[in-house]
Amino acid sequence: MSDTSHTANQAQDLIQRLAARVREARKARGLPRRVLSEISGVSPRYLAQLEAGEGNISVILLQRVAVALDLKIETLLSETVPFDRDVERVARLFSKANPDVQQQVRALLSKQSPTAMRSGRICLIGLRGAGKSTLGRLAGVALDLPFVELNKEIELASDMPVAEVMALYGQEGYRELEAEALERVSATHDKMILAVAGGIVAEQATYATLLQRFHTIWVYTSPSEYMQRVRAQGDVRPMEGNPAAMTQLKNLLDTRTPLYERADAQINTSNRPVNASLKDLLKIIEKRHFLETPGK
């Protein structure tokens, strides 16, 4: 290998190591990228590129990031591992474990029972157009609970619309932000109603976390109503110029239904007025004691 190639590889290793260190330090401190941007004075886009290992960053800007993370800049650049080696080894094994093993580890480390961990937190899952946002918002008002849409949290943290996040960072980048947002809302709210994007169930680790920390309810309707409702929201993309759209939707439903069925409960909103579906949702929450703390 030539000296030039060796130097280039060293530089790339440094960039990737730096990206991982900043990302890990920010998550350890529970800081959304938007907040780190405000503290450090470095733009969210620049921080996103830094954490993705894309391009270089000036020493001055890196120093700002280090200070905001309460770290020395040497810690971010050091070739040695700055964290406890045993902790890092366990964390690495945990990250590679399958979702079921991860869930068992979380349960063992937690002082609370799995039911207690979910107590008070409710999440609505399902495809777009099922009625998650509408029902979640109305149920929040009826039960005096905060209602949160996870995509809105992603937009706040990244300081850009979800569509732009997808265009800039792709599906993988979006999924990472989604997992971070879920961790954040879980830590912030003891009681809440959450609505998530339909595809979260396809990300095994994130879905395992969701099932562990929230009482989940699958909200669904018929394929034709999915299409009608999405169009009523002003999005004609699922049907316009795409005669195979209905077939694609049905295939997607077939694929995701076994995942959605892992939810604690289900609500079919097909041909149901909003008020009737809301009553169904409130009845499930009451009957299944989703807001009650076990033992009280």
Sheet-strand content, in percent, reads 5-15%
Question: How many separate structural domains?
Answer: 2
Radius of gyration: 22 Å
Could you say which structural class the secondary elements and strand pairing correspond to? alpha/beta
CATH homologous superfamily descriptor of the largest domain: P-loop containing nucleotide triphosphate hydrolases
- Alpha-carbon distance between the two ends: 68 Å
Looking at the overall shape, the CATH architecture of the largest domain is 3-Layer(aba) Sandwich
Q: What is the average per-residue confidence, as pLDDT, rounded to a whole number?
A: 82
Give, in spatial order, the strands making up the sheet with the most strands.
2-3-1-4-5
CATH topology of the largest domain: Rossmann fold
Can you give the helix content as a percent range? 55-70%
Per DSSP E runs of 2 or more residues, the count of β-strands stands at 5
Shape: globular
CATH class of the largest domain: Alpha Beta
SSE order: HHHHHHHHEHEHHEHEHHEH
- How many distinct helices? 15
Poorly predicted runs: none
Main pleated-sheet profile? 5 strands, parallel
Q: Multimeric state of these chains?
A: single chain
Helices and strands in order:
Elements (H helix, E strand, L loop, with lengths): L2 H26 L4 H8 L3 H9 L6 H10 L4 H5 L7 H12 L2 H11 L4 H5 L2 E5 L6 H12 L3 E3 H9 L3 H27 L3 E4 L8 H10 L1 E6 L2 H10 L12 H16 L4 E4 L5 H14 L9
Parallel strand pairs: 1-3, 1-4, 2-3, 4-5
Helix pairs in contact: 2-4, 7-12, 9-15, 10-11, 11-12
What attributes characterize this protein structure?
434 Repressor (Amino-terminal Domain), 5-stranded parallel β-sheet, alpha/beta, Rossmann fold, 2 domains, 296 residues
